[in-house]
Amino acid sequence: MIAVHVPCDSAALAAGADEVAELLQTECARAGLAIDLRRNSSRGLFWLEPLVEIDTPAGRMGYGPVTARDVPGLLAAGALDGKSHPLCQGLVSEIPYLARQERLVFARMGVTRPLSLADYLAHGGFEGLRQAARLAPAAIVQTVLDSGLRGRGGAAFPTGIKWKTVHDAQAPQKYVVCNADEGDSGAYADRMVMEGDPYLLIEGMTIAALATGATRGYVYIRAEYPHAIATMREAIELAGQAGFLGADALGSGQAFALEVRKAAGAYICGEETAMLESIEGRRGIVRAKPPLPAVQGLFGQPTVINNVISFASVPSILVNGADFYRDYGMGRSRGTLPIQLAGNILRGGLVEKAFGVTLRELLYGFGGGSASGRPIKAVQVGGPLGAYVPESQWDVPLDYEAYAAIGAAIGHGGIVVHDDTANLARLARHAMAFCAQESCGKCTPCRIGSVRGVEVIDRIRAGGDRAAQVILLRDLCDTMLHGSLCAMGAMTPYPVLSALNHYPADFGIEAPQRQAA
């Protein structure tokens, strides 16, 4: 029986994967062709979705993007035997977009069925947890520290330091919380893990629990991710039944219970303390720090908070060792980063590369340039509050410190591309309006500054005393940058100042007053 793989994540479903799978079953049954239809996860090559993969003696042969109307032709051409067809992409593992990546977190993506424990175990699943169960908690923490892993949610804080703080805290109860409220524009790596490799997240969170003495965990998932919520809930149930969670997690002698909490749809709840407020049943408002969540977090107890990719990076560190992980990357940015190409890009999708890759390589070596065929003008890196990076900076390596030096931030790795028809003054205004809409309202620089920012940009675009208004806008951005309680207000100036600095003509300004964004 021939194994045929059709992805089942929400990106593939949106492209018609269910219809393709259903027609494959129907047409094969009609023709007397025996197939084993398997719903795998997407590999993140979204311009090829739905990507149908056929097992052959040489490996998996890929065909895509396949629509339901393509199915009869594929079967007639002998696709089940790996034969040629206009949609044939060759062996999937040799597709350049995929072959040129360094996949650590996404190694199983597209290979396994998301909810199959047998598939996960057959591809090295829970080996990191087995290693952790043999170590003392302090040794687990030290391994993560030595790996150089930094939080992939945007702040890039060393993961091991967070874990050590919670490990050292004395408290009757400790928690592990995964911030999966992935709300950045152009970001979908968290969703891909939860929908495509959910046991990896469970394994990473359980390792964190063993390292810190936490016995309860929560996965806080944005409400706009119904497939991720359903998949994670089922995976947690199955992992519990198999003994990987529960009263004695994998025979470690420690209990760890895990549950999903659905977010209410507020962007501010991606901020860790607002998220804690939401989990506790209150409106998502940012807490003042200190105390830090690692000392006094969920329900006032020591809490490990990391995002999906941070937790998902941990199992391979435990399996392969800290040195293995640290050998990827550059400077203080170690390991790999899942980069998400979106916007006006020909080949959008997930690219997992070691730190040090450049935007130019990503935009053209992977993305193939703009989808419109027009010149790329600006690239927003790091979500809706990330800086607009001009072509003069596309050769700066993706590295936390290198990007900070140019007034930008890598954030969650989301990249949104704009061609030369984009107006950066309009986009800068959108950043201020977005902040005004999504601010929790607790601090004045964010709550009021964003509203005033929209007004000032409108006056600049209208042509009224531009020089004075630009000075006012820069002063306002400085106040927000240094006076806001959290990154919501503090990062809103990034897109605004980068637009002012690098695209002054869009504001009607001839000679900008250069300042660091």
Topology readout:
Blueprint: E1 2-5, H1 10-14, H2 17-31, E2 35-38, E3 52-56, E4 59-63, H3 71-76, E5 88-91, H4 96-99, H5 117-122, H6 127-133, H7 137-147, H8 159-168, E6 175-180, H9 189-196, H10 198-212, E7 216-221, H11 226-241, E8 257-262, H12 272-279, E9 303-307, H13 308-320, H14 322-326, E10 329-330, E11 333-334, E12 336-343, E13 349-354, H15 359-366, E14 376-381, E15 388-389, H16 400-405, E16 414-419, H17 424-438, H18 444-462, H19 466-483, H20 487-491, H21 493-502
Parallel strand pairs: 1-2, 6-7, 6-9, 7-8, 12-16
Antiparallel strand pairs: 1-3, 3-4, 4-5, 10-11, 12-13, 14-15, 14-16
Helix pairs in contact: 6-10, 6-13, 7-8, 7-10, 9-10, 9-11, 10-13, 17-18, 17-21, 18-19
Task: Label this structure with key terms.
five-stranded mixed beta sheet; about 40% helix; about 525 residues; 21 helices
Structure described in brief:
This protein is an alpha/beta fold and 517 residues long.
Explain what the structure shows.
By secondary structure, the chain is α/β, with parallel strands linked by helices. 41% of the residues lie in helices and 15% in strands. The chain is built from 21 helices and 16 strands. It has helices at 10-14, 17-31, 71-76, 96-99, 117-122, 127-133, 137-147, 159-168, 189-196, 198-212, 226-241, 272-279, 308-320, 322-326, 359-366, 400-405, 424-438, 444-462, 466-483, 487-491, 493-502; strands spanning 2-5, 35-38, 52-56, 59-63, 88-91, 175-180, 216-221, 257-262, 303-307, 329-330, 333-334, 336-343, 349-354, 376-381, 388-389, 414-419. The strands form 4 sheets. A 5-stranded mixed sheet has the order 2-1-3-4-5, with helices on one face. A hairpin with a 6-residue loop joins strand 14 and strand 15. Helix 7 (137-147) runs antiparallel to helix 8. The radius of gyration is 24 Å and the shape is globular. 54% of the residues are buried. The model has no long low-confidence stretch (mean pLDDT 95).
